[in-house]
């Protein structure tokens, strides 16, 4: 029981650090006159996701205990966030947040590795016992968003100071966790194996190549509302100053994270009933609705559409990620499975997120005149993009639903 509590604290603070600034930081940048550079800064997370988890994984596998590396990276991240809170000049802010992304993004995977290792060595069932522990990470993310909003820090550098302080606490706490020593790689391991890219050979198969191509295109959608959602809601400050969505925009946006946690529980039913491809298509359809409802919504008479958009985010985000992960688990040989899962993260949260943030920035900048953005047009453009990707995916990706998927999910 104590062990589970310690790992729960780890997951809670892992995502508390991220939730302290991720959703509200776009609005903070806009308040500093950096609205045209939000996508550029948020793309740093995609760049870091593309390269750093693999490097950190190699270090943890060969040289340093995973919990020590986790602690060291969080302490470095705390220093970066503290430095970021002390500047209002874009180049300095970009450098601080880029360095923070480089050290923070690997910690998500490392925190999972520490949990899996500790649980396995202590006789716990990771498939049964880890999901409830991980769910507290989502709780931590939401709690951080609420604190920032209720404290009035959504447009303040204090959100970075809170993230820095919690990162420092987590970094020190990580050193107290049970040891997760490195497992030496085989002597003859190739560079490709060490980098976790064994699964590249799978791209020779047409269906797998098509899947990864669309994973990149879907990854474009993943972070757009995280980057610009707060800025969008703040654009209604003058028209709807007393609206809940404006005054408590971070709390309102946290409905998306709550929906995400709830939709995870519904995935086994949908996968069992409809199969992997249909669930992926549901995700793409949900992205169309996510963006489209933003386009017609407002904090006044259109509040219901904004609320529905928050709820539908859970399906949009979860359904492709988890069904895609199950597709890889089922369709790849065991020796490539871990590498293929890593590739999925690299192309969606890495390459796709980079393209998405830079692309969204271009669209929004093109529809901004005198610091006023035509948000409806922007959201409809994003919705149209998701619709086109969904139609092409339905045509190009051939996959038949079988009962084996149901059995896998039930297990």
Please explain how this structure is put together.
The chain is mainly alpha-helical and 411 residues long. Helix content is 78%, strand content 1%. It folds into two domains: 1-180, Up-down Bundle (Growth Hormone, Chain: A), CATH 1.20.1250; 196-411, Up-down Bundle (Growth Hormone, Chain: A). A hairpin with a 2-residue loop joins strand 1 (368-369) and strand 2 (372-373). Helix 4 (66-85) packs antiparallel against helix 5, helix 4 packs antiparallel against helix 7 and helix 9 crosses helix 15. It starts with a helix and ends with a helix. Residues 404-411 have low confidence and may be disordered.
Largest sheet, order of strands side by side?
1-2
Q: How many domains make up the 3D coordinates?
A: 2
Which shape, going by the Cα principal axes? Answer: globular
Cα radius of gyration in angstroms:
21 Å
The secondary structure category is: mainly alpha
Helix content: over 70%
CATH class of the largest domain: Mainly Alpha
Low-confidence stretches: 404-411
**How is the CATH topology of the largest domain named?**
Growth Hormone, Chain: A
What is the CA–CA distance across the termini? 24 Å
Largest sheet, described in full? 2 strands, antiparallel
Return the CATH architecture of the largest domain. Answer: Up-down Bundle
């Amino acid at each position: 029981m104590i062990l589970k509590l310690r790992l729960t604290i780890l997951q809670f603070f892992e995502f508390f650090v991220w939730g302290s600034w991720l959703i509200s930081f776009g609005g903070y940048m806009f308040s500093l006159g950096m609205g045209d550079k939000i996508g550029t800064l948020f793309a740093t997370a995609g760049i870091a996701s593309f390269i750093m988890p693999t490097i950190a994984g190699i270090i943890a596998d060969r040289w340093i205990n995973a919990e020590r590396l986790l602690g060291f990276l969080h302490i470095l991240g705390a220093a970066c966030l503290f430095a970021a809170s002390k500047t209002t000049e874009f180049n300095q802010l970009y450098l601080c947040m880029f360095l923070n992304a480089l050290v923070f993004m690997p910690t998500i995977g490392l925190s999972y590795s520490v949990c899996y290792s500790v649980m396995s060595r202590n006789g716990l069932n990771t498939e049964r016992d880890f999901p409830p522990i991980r769910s507290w990470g989502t709780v931590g993310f939401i709690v951080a968003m609420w604190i920032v909003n209720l404290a009035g820090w959504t447009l303040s550098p204090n959100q970075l100071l809170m993230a820095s302080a919690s990162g420092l606490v987590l970094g020190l706490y990580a050193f107290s966790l049970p040891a997760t020593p490195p497992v030496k790689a085989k002597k003859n391991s190739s560079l490709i194996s060490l980098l976790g890219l064994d699964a590249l050979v799978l791209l020779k198969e047409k269906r797998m190549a098509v899947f990864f191509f669309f994973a990149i295109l879907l990854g474009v959608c993943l972070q757009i509302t995280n980057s610009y959602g707060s800025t969008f809601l703040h654009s209604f400050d003058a028209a709807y100053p007393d609206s809940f969505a404006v005054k408590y925009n971070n709390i309102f946006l946290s409905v998306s994270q709550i929906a995400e946690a709830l939709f995870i529980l519904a995935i086994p039913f949908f996968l069992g009933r409809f199969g992997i491809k249909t669930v992926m298509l549901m995700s793409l359809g949900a992205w169309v609705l996510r963006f489209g409802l933003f386009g017609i919504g407002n904090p006044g008479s259109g509040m219901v559409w904004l609320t529905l958009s928050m709820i539908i985010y859970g399906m949009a985000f979860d359904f492709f990620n988890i069904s895609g992960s199950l597709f890889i688990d089922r369709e790849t040989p065991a020796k490539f499975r871990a590498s293929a899962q890593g590739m999925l993260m690299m192309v969606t949260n890495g390459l796709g997120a980079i393209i998405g943030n830079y692309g969204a920035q271009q669209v929004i900048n093109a529809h901004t005149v005198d610091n006023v953005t035509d948000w409806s047009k922007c959201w409809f453009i994003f919705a149209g993009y998701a619709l086109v990707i969904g139609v092409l995916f339905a045509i190009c990706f051939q996959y038949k639903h079988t009962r084996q998927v149901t059995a896998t999910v039930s297990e």
